[in-house]
Amino acid sequence: MIISSVTCADNLHEAKMMARAVKYHMPYASVVICLMEQTIHPAAVDVPWFDEVVLAKDLGIPHFEGSIFKYSLLEAVTSIKPMFLRSLFDRYTHEQNVVFMDTDIIAYAPFDDLLVALEHHNILLSPHRIEPNPEPLGYIQHGIFNTGFMAFRRSEDTFRFLEWWGQRLYSYCYYHAPFFVDQKWVDLAPALFDIKIWKHPGYNIAAWNLHERCRKIVREEDGRYWLDNDYPFVCYHYSGMHGMLQYCMDMWIPDKSNPLYYLLQLYEEELNTMGKEELSDVPWSYDYYLDGTPILVEERKAYGSDIQSFESGSNPFQTRFGAYSRKEEGYS
């Protein structure tokens, strides 16, 4: 099994935490990190929990620089996810299963149930919620599925899905509506591919589903946590650390003795140990032209709407994007 993730240098402290937890619970798994940077940052070198670090620009994505120039950091990182996953199947020919995890997901148990499910299904998608919710707007805005946690078995259907998804993200992986980067596209997938909606309550527990009764930890036993009906507490998604997660924990889990508060405290402490203070301020290398000039948001938007510039095949990072420069100077 391969555990994979895509990140930038400013998030390597999270990636190291994710990988260390994976290796602790699943030493048989390989961890492969794709770095959306011009070069491999020193913090990603000789990390004992990383089996491999690859650069996004080396995945063989056609006209790579042009495909990401129009995107923000979040959009660019997300846009290459399908191509990265497909490349893992191509390069690790002996591996049957690939799991994608956002770097802010921590494993607290082996993925045993998930591996059993992959013996019978090609693609596992994790819904944001598995119980009815009186507030439906989250689905409408962000999509039914959370693409921060997905699992795949080697199959033609998996490859067709990754190709279909990748084609859409290549051009339309924008944060703004109706896309919400890669997630809204995946809402269409169950109608088109062999999809298993992975409703195991112990996976991908996060701020957006803490209100669900089936997600509540009911006991601790030998260092493991358990939910109702003997479901294991498998992995926690620490998305929204800067407000949403704490707000939802306070609202839905008011008992401060709940183990989730202890786990959150440990997570915050370990972020610092892994270099959060140093790494979180590392600038994204694709935020600059090759000569070091910062790229303006307006320049990214102008390039994204200029099909001719993209189809020229030139590297837009080489010089300031001319179409926007002319508009800025008052030309039409």
Q: Element order, helices and strands?
A: EHEEHHHEEHEHEHHHEEEEHHHHHH
**Alpha-carbon distance between the termini?**
54 Å
- CATH superfamily assignment of the domain at 2-203? Spore Coat Polysaccharide Biosynthesis Protein SpsA, Chain A
Tell me the radius of gyration. 20 Å
Strand arrangement, major sheet: 3-2-1-4-7-6-8
Structural class: alpha/beta
Under the CATH scheme, the architecture of the domain at 2-203 is Alpha-Beta Complex
Q: Note the main sheet.
A: 7 strands, mixed
Kindly report the average pLDDT value.
92
Percent of residues in beta strands? 15-25%
Protein name: Glycosyl transferase
Notable features of this structure?
332 residues, Spore Coat Polysaccharide Biosynthesis Protein SpsA, Chain A, 7-stranded mixed beta sheet, Nucleotide-diphossugar_trans, disordered C terminus, alpha/beta
Would you mind describing this structure in some detail?
This protein has 332 residues and is an alpha/beta fold. It has a domain at 2-203: Spore Coat Polysaccharide Biosynthesis Protein SpsA, Chain A. The chain is built from 15 helices and eleven strands. It has helices at 12-25, 64-69, 73-79, 81-91, 112-118, 137-142, 156-171, 183-186, 189-192, 244-252, 259-273, 276-279, 297-304, 307-311, 322-328, and strands at 2-7, 30-35, 52-55, 97-101, 105-107, 123-127, 145-153, 195-197, 217-221, 224-227, 235-237. A hairpin with a 2-residue loop joins strand 9 (217-221) and strand 10 (224-227). Helix 4 packs antiparallel against helix 7. The model is unreliable at 323-332 (pLDDT under 50).
